[in-house]
Amino acid sequence: MRASDMNEGSTADISYAPTANSNLLQEPPDFSLVLGGPLFQLLRRAHLSDDALELVRQRIIVISLFAWLPLLVLSALEGQLLGVRVAVPFLLDLEVHVKFLLVMPLLIAAELVVHQRIRLVVPQFLERNLIPESAMARFDAAIASALRLRNSVLAEVLLIAFVYVVGVLIVWRHYTALATATWSAVLTVEGLQLSLSGMWYGYVSLPIYQFLLMRWYFRMFIRMRFLWQVSRIDLSLVSTHPDRVVGVGFLANTVYAFTPLAVAHGAVVAGLIANRIFYLGAALPDFKIEIASLVVFLLGMVLGPLLVFAPQLAQAKRTGNREYGTLAQRYVREFDASGCRAARLPMSRSWVAATSSPSPIWAIVSKWCGRCKSRRLQETL
């Protein structure tokens, strides 16, 4: 089912259920990691999204300002916008501004980029005849399973619960909050004492940001699971394909769609490090482990799922080396048997013209060998 055929406001409209009569070759589904789920339906009803995720500017402005603007207003009312009442006033908190004015827009904009790139993956598998006819049912089931997960209400409810229980109450309060007086909270013996702006930050703004981030991790899990299921199918690979990866090179091109997501992660870590350097006296080398871990994590998240095809690629390479090695050996032996090797003729203009023509290789070899035989006949006479 294509996105343009969806009726507004119906979750079932964006689901995909395989049937006995479904024909993937004639009408492949639009496979999208982001075009579904309860939040997507909510945004459509709020006229902040359409069936193709085009209203990205409206979503960025509304969601980012909903998270950031109340913090500005409440901090100003509490007198913590600037000044010396706290060590970190609101306008000088780089981490907060990076999260809501840079990272959150990147997470939202990445949805459109990923949607436009990933939706072409399923048609490529079919157009390149990578899926055997006997495995169409398994491929169909893999698509349906991925879309069910993407549209799952339970999954997003669990993500929200995880954000509040783990992300806010544990990670933020005990690990990422600055150990000094800030516009959002003051560190006491009993823990963080939140200001009014800190309450909005901790229970509204931060959960929205963390939910968008966790939802991306869930989507990456769906992508990895789908690719793993496809890799279990005995694909019709071509070892001589010009992409040099037996015909699945189009999968490598999809990784560029996750560039905004990678930039967002880098910005998060940069903002966190900047606050600790400016306000806690830390030095940049103190965070070399965090920086290295981020690089490894991003490479694993984006490129790691493609490794599931490594066994089939290795098998296709071994098969290709064996089969085409035998074919090449036969050609070489027939070439030697023709007597051309013993003639040792210099390359002539006719040979250069023959090799530059689009004719098959055997036509070229035959022409050269015919010249060889003529030369040997003249020498005999």
Written overview of the protein:
- This protein is mostly helical and 381 residues long.
- The chain contains 14 helices and two strands.
- The protein has helices at 38-45, 56-77, 94-118, 121-127, 136-150, 153-176, 196-231, 250-253, 259-280, 288-303, 310-337, 340-343, 349-356, 361-380; strands at 185-188, 191-194.
- A hairpin with a 2-residue loop joins strand 1 (185-188) and strand 2 (191-194).
- The termini are far apart.
Number of strands: 2
Helix content: 55-70%
Portion in beta strands = under 5%
Element order, helices and strands? Answer: HHHHHHEEHHHHHHHH
Strand order of the largest sheet: 1-2
- The end-to-end span amounts to 77 Å
Q: Count the helices. How many?
A: 14
Helix/strand layout:
Elements (H helix, E strand, L loop, with lengths): L37 H8 L10 H22 L16 H25 L2 H7 L8 H15 L2 H24 L8 E4 L2 E4 L1 H36 L18 H4 L5 H22 L7 H16 L6 H28 L2 H4 L5 H8 L4 H20 L1
Antiparallel strand pairs: 1-2
Give the key terms.
14 helices; two-stranded antiparallel ribbon; mainly alpha; 381 residues
In short:
This protein is mostly helical and 381 residues long.
